[in-house]
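Hey team,

Filing this mostly as a record. A colleague (T.K.) asked me to run one chain through the structure pipeline before their review meeting, and I want the input and output archived in the tracker in case anyone asks later how it was produced. No errors, nothing strange. Just documentation.

Input sequence:
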Amino acid sequence: MEPMIPLRIAVLTISDTRTDETDRSGQALVERLTQAGHQLVEKRIVPDDVYTIRAVVAQWIADPAVQGVITTGGTGFTGRDSTPEAVRVLLDKPIEGFGERFRQLSGEEIGSSTIQSRCLGGLANATVIFCLPGSTGACRTGWDGILAEQLDSRHKPCNFANLVIPERGQHG
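Output structure:
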């Protein structure tokens, strides 16, 4: 079997209350991506503010050292939840199936409450972006059920890793 090509991934936690010490969701993502062999480029926590979120994600999209961005938080329906509004306008191509598949997997765990998840994915400037809900369980579901395979360059018949790895010829 061919070796996996690790991706350089940034993790953004969106929360008005979490700190490095209390950010279990962001830490779960960092643990999973590094255990899978990927490289953590940066991890940040920002408040649930559309312009702050957009600025950080845009900065990472513009940085050639970042091939993937995973966010956690701000995807619900409460007043301050604004991750989809912040990120959607940055996408060159949305990945509609990501939210659909996430809600399908999540529904097995939390039932109809999954319809309140506005998680999304997409591609922008040869960077893959996935926005997950803020709960640690949702981050585990998203990584274990979708991202572990889709960010693995060996996954067949297709994966998103090969779209962001320049030497694979599908970059851009």
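Quick notes for T.K.: The mean pLDDT is 94. Residues 48 and 80 are 6 Å apart (CA to CA).
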